[in-house]
Structure formats: C-alpha cells, structure tokens
Amino acid sequence: MINWPCFFKLEGDDELIYLGSESDLMDECQSLIWSDADVIVDSDGQQFTFALSKNHTFCFQMKGDPLTLEVVTALIQAHEFSKAEMCLTKIQFRAIDDAIESLSF
Prior knowledge:
Helix content is 30%, strand content 23%. It has one domain. The protein starts with 5 loop residues before the first strand and ends with a helix. By secondary structure, it is α+β, with helices and mostly antiparallel strands. The radius of gyration is 13 Å and the shape is globular.
C-alpha cells in the first residue's frame, strides 16, 4: 500500500513529481509516457513499480528495500539543483515524509 504523499522518480531525469493523493497519482499515470524503470517513492521510502493491467487499471508492486532518508534527500537535492533555485546545503530533513512534502511547494 502506498503511503501519502509520494513522488514519481522518472528514469534518467532529476525532476521529481509530487503526488499528494491517490487521485493525483492516477491523473499522472494516465497522462505520462512512462517506462518500466520509473518508480513511485512513498512517505516510508518504499519504491513501487507500476504497470497497466489487461483491464486497464494500474497495478503497483513494491520494489526492493525502502530508500533511506539520506537517499531521498539526495534525490530531492538533485531535483532542486536541476531547477537552480536553492542552495543544496540548506536541504536537510528530519524524516522521509517531511522530505517528500517539501516537493509540494
């Protein structure tokens, strides 16, 4: 089960897409051109892959061990660096859900 909020991490791209709810996730899944290497990372750091089933619903599968706070922070730092709007040394978080929530601003 995906814990909210979460974000999309697209293969080969530092941009992260914030998803605050299941409806946000469904909207993005329907509008994106995605690959098998794209993942969703939830508020616990758990990664999920996704696919479209035969009956045209999205299926989500846990992938590997949860990411650590340090790894999630590094992903967000790379995301912010790509936008060139924030000093990377100021990007620090106490918890993964705090880190993900920062993407909503």
